[in-house]
Write a structure and sequence with these properties.
The chain has 123 residues and is α+β, with helices and mostly antiparallel strands. Helix content is 44%, strand content 28%. Strands 1, 2, 3, 4 and 5 form a 5-stranded antiparallel sheet that branches.
Length: 123
């Protein structure tokens, strides 16, 4: 979420609470709301790299990472699987997983997935 959008959310919350609460209470509520949004914003990011040939005929690798959070490993896995599917779909084929590895298991670590795959014709 962009900083501008975050400011609009907090401003709207402040406008909603203004008639009912004191200024210190509004600041506390705004801080709590901001702290509640931070983990959600951290979970939104996953990126996948470019498809690279492995050197073995017809095999490719992909690397993806996701910002820490409770299910970052799932986001990095989804990113590599989606990229592999998109790559093979451009060829009119479907992906077949050869191997996958993951790194990063702690909540605030960057989680990484590496996928080796092949593209095969649709049946």
């Amino acid at each position: 979420m962009e900083t501008f959008a975050m400011g609009r959310v907090l401003s709207g919350l402040n406008d909603l609470l203004r008639p009912r609460t004191t200024a210190p209470a509004r600041r506390r509520i705004a801080r709590v709301a901001l702290l509640a949004l931070v983990p959600l914003l951290m979970q939104a990011c996953a990126s996948s790299g470019a498809v690279e040939p492995t050197g073995d005929a017809g095999r490719f690798t992909l690397h993806a990472s996701a910002a820490g959070g409770s299910v970052a490993w799932a986001r990095s896995h989804k990113a590599v699987m989606q990229s592999a599917s998109d790559f093979c779909a451009q060829r009119g084929e479907v992906p077949s997983v050869v191997s996958e590895s993951s790194k990063g298991v702690r909540a605030l670590e960057t989680h990484e997935s590496e996928l080796t795959f092949e593209c095969h014709p649709r049946f």
